[in-house]
Amino acid sequence: MKEQYSFYAMLDRMQYIQRWGLMRNTRTENLKEHSFDVAVIAHSLALIHNNILRLPYIDPLLTMGEALLHDITEIITGDMPTPIKYKNDQLKTAYKAVEAQAANNLLSLLPEELHQEYKDLLLPDLSDENRKMVHRLVKAADRISAYLKCLMEDKAGNDEFRSARESIETSIHNLECEEAEYYMEHFVPAYGMTLDEISQ
Asked: Of 37, 51, 84, 198, which is most buried with the most CB atoms under 10 A?
């Protein structure tokens, strides 16, 4: 019998991990769709970095790949609310260790020949300056995606996300990321438009 691997079947289960579990949502968001959104935004941030800001080149496809899998460990850990995950250094350190173990568990579901390719995406070497920049853009994209979720909930009349929206917007500005600031100024306003307004 041929050897079988379950890595990609596990990835498919991202659709069952619901985000924002402690908050009332007008529309639920699962991990799979969030990961797609973060990948699209991160790719655009890399393009802004290279083509608009003309900073030292970073690979947009690598950025998109890391973004697509940035929360993959939540298949195992579930979605830990941010206020809990980052409440103090001790919790943050413990959660990072849990994430690393979950990443290694997922890597074990692949053929040995693919381990390193995915390890580079799941556990990037942040001592490398280029990878550090990619990781920074993915983090910014993740924050922007969360901000957009808050924006949409607010637009739907759900006050539950108002304070989250404000704190996430502050956290985006605190990143001091030119690419994220450009995206917020030039692309985010369209998210509040109607279909007819977007189409014009």
From this structure: 37
